[in-house]
Amino acid sequence: MAISFMATPHPKQPYASSSPPPQRKGRACRYTGQAVRALPIRVITVGKKRSEGVRLLVDEYKTKLKPYCSFEDSLVRSNPRNAQDVRAQVEDEEAAIVKLIGPDDWVVVLDERGRDVDSEQMAELLGDAGNSGASRISFCIGGAYGHGSEVRKRANLTIKLSSLVLNHQIALVVLMEQLYRAWTILKGQNYHH
Predict the structure, then answer these.
(1) Distance of alpha carbon 46 from alpha carbon 48, whole angstroms
(2) Which of 13, 44, 42 is nearest to 129 (CA)?
(3) Exposed, middle or buried by CB within 10 Å (0-12, 13-18, 19+), for 92?
(4) Is the pTM of this model over 0.85?
(5) For each of the chain's 193 residues, which pLDDT tens digit applies?
(6) Rounded Cα distance, 110 and 166, in Å
């Protein structure tokens, strides 16, 4: 299933400037104000036990997402067999992820080499997935060594949340906030400016 995002130009600005940065003129999401099929969302994260702060933030965003869609958070244990070989570790994590992905899931892999998306494009991603005929959206956040080839092949789309490499716990919090932001964009609510 192909996704069509409209490109948004990002002018390069010098880091040090005496003038204030130009105001970004955001573009409207093409689904704002329209009925969008709310697919259940599952976020699959590879990692170890979460910190208390991350658990609190995830719970807060789960509550915020309830009016918009059902949400499931799945944590896959990193390196489940304590493999010394990186390839074996990634394969074990991948096997656990693949078991959680349904045949009708619309899969989004988060990867530092993925497509850069802004908040309006994230909203369009939810709208496009809702129109795809999929039964659920599954976002996959990889472990320390990323995703295996099977998960990458299964992905309908690969995106990045930042040009920076993010710890899986930080990536989860950023994703949760962006999912909430995307829904407020779709509903035309006053959260995103």
Answers:
(1) 7
(2) 42
(3) buried
(4) no
(5) 444 443 333 333 333 334 333 334 456 788 787 778 899 999 999 998 899 999 999 999 999 999 999 999 999 998 877 778 899 999 999 999 999 999 999 999 999 999 999 999 999 999 999 989 999 999 999 999 999 999 999 999 999 999 888 899 999 999 999 999 999 999 888 776 5
(6) 10
